[in-house]
Amino acid sequence: MQIFISFILAIISSMLIDNVVLSRFYGICPFLGVSKKVKSSLGMGIAVVFVILLATVICWPLYNYVLVPAGIAFLDTVVYILVIASLVQLVGLFIKKYSPSLYKSLGIYLPLITTNCAVLGVAQGNTDQGLSFLDSLANGLGTSIGFLLIIVTFSCIRTRLDSANTPKAFKGLPIALVTAAIMAIALMGLQGLFSGIKL
Amino acid sequence: MAKEKGFTKKNFLKGIVVENPLFVSILGTCPALATTKTVEAALGMGLLFTVVLICSSVLVSLLRKLISEEIRTPAYIVIIATFVTIVKMMTSAFLPELYSTLGVFISLIVVNCIVLGRAEAYASKNTVFDSFIDALGMGVGYTLAIILMAFFRELIGTGAFSFGKIFTFIPAFKLQIIPVGYEISLFQNPAGAFIVFAIILAVIAFINNRKNELKTNLERQAKIKKQQEAKLKAEQEKAKQVAEGETK
Amino acid sequence: MSQGAYIAIGVIVIVALLAIFIISFILYRRTPVPKGCEDIKISEENCSSCGHTECQFYKKKDAEE
């Protein structure tokens, strides 16, 4: 029970309090780039969730059971980027071959995930902080769901922003960034939510 | 390939102004927002980034005839990841303060779109020297851009500039500009980073809009002038013809 | 196991990863696009400015220059 509660708390804290986009600044590029339409942002978000989970499950054992015993832990970044890039290609290959309908909605976003900071950032952060496997999994799950949540919310706001009467210089990206700032302030209010809970 | 005079200078300067990776192409935004709490950290980040960019560009350019078209992207990713690992180890050995400040963002240079983008778009097609100059220009442009962001964030957020905390080989000193108690600490938070970036982009858009307006205005004026001249000419000719007819 | 064996395993794993990556990359490029998906395009409307070089949109933009 104790483990279960701490697992849930870890997910929520990495999802909302320490949100991947708005307080850790991973994955700003797709956050700004692929958020003009709700549909495309949903596709990108789901693809990111999938790849982050797979990458977390593969990278953690690889680091702790292969790289550390061999004494080549300094090669972690190279190994992680290789794992992520081949994962992306393999998943893309699978989808391309067996599921045209899935390819239609996710296919174009998959190759972009290789250079999404969030995936490498989560894998690297898990081992840099020395988290256990369960904590890494919670971190990966929370981070990816947080990304999905924020990018979809943001795209919903952005579709409304298009019809708003903004000053000419602020049209497009600047007003979107101001919106992101306001969302970041809103999430700042959640800080210290679990500070009273002791486990 | 014949080059025009001043090509090298132009090639260097384009990365700083016309094609600034951060403010014009909007690339590499993650470290630009995350590591700009202080000017010193931004300078360190820009330095490491420039080193990786130059090294990978030069190596990619050297190997551009050896790497086949088919496996270009994997090869570039491995090259960049190797240089990032080298830079990371060097930083942790010689500048441990910088290493602990930047944290995971040193590793994230691997997935920075600028490095891979320059390797694919420029270094894979051009000579070693040109790629070096291009990478240097882009690196300096990016460094200046994030220093500009850090300048505003540190100035408004803490009211002072402090040096010597990360680059420990220079004596530590603090330059108080805004009196204590008048700083807006929001600018040290994530929200402040977004606001500063938004305002800088808006200023750039404003200047560009102004330039375009001036240009279109000038063009319109020139057009009107031309039309008037043509009209005048036609009238004169008409008058001439009438006069000729009368004399006949 | 001795340290040497661990190092050998580590090197083998890295080389294997590299091989998997390159093979999957080539396979992905050679697999034809499924029917009915040929006309998917990333337009300026729903995507902009992430500059990934594998992206169709970016390639198109690059070619225009």
Biggest sheet character of chain B? 2 strands, antiparallel
How many domains comprise the coordinates of chain A?
1
Helical amount among residues of chain B, as a percent range?
55-70%
Strand percent estimate of chain B: under 5%
User: How many structural domains does the protein architecture of chain B include?
Assistant: 1
The residue fraction in helices of chain A comes out at: over 70%
Class of secondary structure makeup of chain A? mainly alpha
Distance between the termini of chain B: 66 Å
Q: What is the β-strand count of chain A?
A: 0
Strand order of the largest sheet of chain B: 1-2
Regions with little confidence, pLDDT below 50 for 5+ residues of chain A: none
Describe, in plain words, how this protein is organized in 3D.
The complex is a heterotrimer of chains A (199), B (248) and C (65). Helices cover 72% and strands 0% of the residues of chain A. Chain A is an all-alpha fold. Chain A has one domain (2-188). Chain A is globular and about 60 Å long. The model of chain A has no long low-confidence stretch (mean pLDDT 87). Chain B is mostly helical and 248 residues long. In chain B, helix 3 (39-62) packs across helix 4 (72-94) and helix 7 (128-158) crosses helix 8 (190-247). The relative contact order of chain B is 0.13. Chain C has 2 domains: 1-31; 38-65, no CATH class. Helix content of chain C is 57%, strand content 0%. Chain C has 2 helices and no strands. Chain C has helices spanning 3-30, 56-64. Chain C is rod-shaped, with a radius of gyration of 19 Å. Chain C starts with a helix and ends with a helix.
